Amino acid sequence: MDDLQNYKLQLQQVEAALTTDPNNEELIKLKIDLEEVIELTHDLIKSQQQEKRQANGMDAKDPILLAVLANKWKVGDQCMAPWSEDGKYYEATIDAISEDGVVNVTFNEYKNTDVTMLSQLKSVAKRPASDWADQKSKKMQAAAVAGSDPNKQREYLKKKKQRKLQRFKELEEERELEKNKWLAFTNKSSKKGVIKKSIFATPENVNGRVGIGTCGVSGREMTKFSNGEKWRRGA
């Protein structure tokens, strides 16, 4: 969560720098990269939270609760079930219910299958049929290519997460290169006698640090570039 806040702060600072230098290609590229990093971080957080909820659900096998829920739900029932890809609820049909409360469901819109817990199911709310069109998810539509096999679905989600982590790593490396370009450009301009204030400029204050967080204000400590290590560990 700290990494996400840092990325958002860095994006604000880059946007502020762009107001005075709107055609700067390095800043424009950095802004695009930061926006993608923020989106990827959001996705990774959702994925980890969903995995945690499912793990907690598997551990909470209260026999009394399971008995109550088993009487409430049966195979073929319509329900609202969370999709493991984004944690959001969609209309689904119950395919199977095991004794330990594990439920196999098929989402009605794109026929994706998933596994969840009885305790996570919700009743279908009564509302106009036209409203269900708002539920359509591009991610769910794309995942439909994985077929109805639960094993293929899990493998699809695993590969998707790995691709996100790889892209996350690539963006971090690109942002580091952008920072180095700024430093090299500033040094070259200084030698020619051309003064161009960079957001990575070195402040006169001995306690100041080079970094995007300075935004050209000498003496302010930089906003540290987060390396996103904890997200890579989640792979």
UniProtKB/TrEMBL annotation:
Primary localization: nucleus
InterPro entries: SMN_Tudor, Tudor
Pfam families per UniProt: SMN_Tudor (PF06003)
Domain Tudor: 72-131
Gene Ontology terms for molecular function: RNA binding
SUPFAM superfamilies attached to this UniProt entry: Tudor/PWWP/MBT (SSF63748)
Cell compartments where the protein resides: Nucleus speckle; Nucleus, Cajal body
Gene Ontology BP, a term: RNA splicing
SMART domains: TUDOR
Keywords (A to Z) from UniProt: Coiled coil, mRNA processing, mRNA splicing, Nucleus, Spliceosome
Gene Ontology cellular component terms for the protein in this record: Cajal body; cytoplasm; nuclear speck; precatalytic spliceosome
Superkingdom of the organism of origin: Eukaryota
Coiled coil: 154-181
Protein family according to the UniProt entry: Belongs to the SMN family.
Record-linked PANTHER family: SURVIVAL OF MOTOR NEURON-RELATED-SPLICING FACTOR 30, SURVIVAL OF MOTOR NEURON-RELATED-SPLICING FACTOR 30-RELATED
Protein function: Involved in spliceosome assembly.
Protein name stated in the entry: Survival of motor neuron-related-splicing factor 30
UniProt organism field: Harpegnathos saltator (Jerdon's jumping ant)
Lineage of the species this protein comes from: Eukaryota, Metazoa, Ecdysozoa, Arthropoda, Hexapoda
